[in-house]
Every structure is written in structure tokens, then in C-alpha cells.
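Lecture 7, part 2: worked example. A protein chain together with SN-glycerol-3-phosphate.
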Amino acid sequence: MFELYLDTANVQEIARLDAAMPVFGVTTNPSILAKEGKGLAEVLPAIKDVLGEQARFHVQTVSTTTEGMVEEAIQISQLPYDIVVKIPTTEIGLAAMKQLKSKNISILATAIYSAQQGFIAALCGADYLAPYVNRIDVLGANSVNVVSDLQLLIKQQNLSCKLLPASFKNTRQVMDILRLGVDSITLSTDIAAQMMAHPSVQPAVDVFTNDWQGAFAGKLAYQS
Ligand code: G3P
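Predicted complex, written out as C-alpha cells:
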């Protein structure tokens, strides 16, 4: 099943978008929570109220040592939600992933900028890999190549991790990545809204409405 996430902690925006698309869960990071000015204790229950019991949350550690990340990840994983712990894919983060794997904690390796970096995280036991699509592209690399290389390596080595590309800045990037057949994506609320929108849609619907009113004023379709 494809997993569509929203990369936000804004409860109102999550509610608005969830009404019109099947939101599987939410991804957050320290910057997203800082922007909302709200911590996990406030945000997670409010989002769960909106999305329901089955919602999956990807929550990032903020510790700067391996030991700190491991302890923080254990605490995060014990929160009463379907939680995946996000660990930055640095050397100390990879060391934390290795330790956490033996503790059966679900891990997302975040801040992935290259296929080789993601591959090491997958070997360390990450359940999800989050390549940063736009950030890769603006550095002059090619996010489609990074994601397709990761798919190839995961398949060749029969690894069980999923790809959860993040950091999209336009819908063309989203389509380029979806075309590769990834397992999941996370979208900012702006990009999620743009996925539903097209400047020609409302004018087309307006023509239907006008034509209908001209011929069957006041009636609904089943009354005609
Ligand atoms: O979780 C981090 C990832 O979503 C980055 O997105 O938009 O800050 O590049 P962005």
C-alpha cells in the first residue's frame, strides 16, 4: 500500500488535506516543530485526532551523540503511537541505527543526499530511507538518479527498507519520483495542495454549472 505523508505539524492544514486525500501519516523534523512552536506532547495527539488511530508518525531525534540518539529513540518509540524514529544519516547516526536495529525499533534514515549514503543506512537496518529530492537537485546532482540507484541497490541486496523521498519543491519533482515506483513520499502542505490543483479545472467545472443552470435551473441531476 502506498504511503502518502504530510511533512508538517500544522494540524489545521493536515485536517484540510486529509479531507481530500488519503493521508497515511505525518513526518516531522526539528525545524517543522520549531516553526509551529509546539512540541510532540501537543502536536501528536492533535494529529492523531484528525487522522485516526492508524496514523503513522515519523519523529526525529535531536541528540548529537550516538548514545543520546539511541536513548532518545527508545523514548520516542515508547510513545503511544505508530512511530518511526528518524535518525540523521551521519556517522554517529548510522552507529545509532545499528544499535537500534537490535532493539526492534523502526527507523527512518533521514537527510540522505547520495545513494551510497542511503545504501549504508539500509545495511545498518533502516526501515525507511528519506532522500532529500529538491536539496539534491539544487546541489547540482540528480535526485531521480539517486532514488533509482537506491531502488536498484535495495533490490540487488534483497533489503527490506522502503523509500520515503522528501523535500519536494514542485509537482514535477514529485511525478519524476513517483514514476520510479517508490513506496511512499512526504509532501509539504503547499505541494500536496498543488497535486490536486490545475488552473483549467475550475473554469471547466464552471462551464458545466452554467450550462446546467441554463437548461435545468434549480434542479439537481437526479431530478432532471
Ligand atoms: O524532513 C526534512 C525534509 O522534509 C526536508 O524538506 O523542504 O526542508 O528541504 P525541505
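The chain has eleven helices and eight strands. The longest strand covers residues 82-88. Keep this in mind for problem set question 3.
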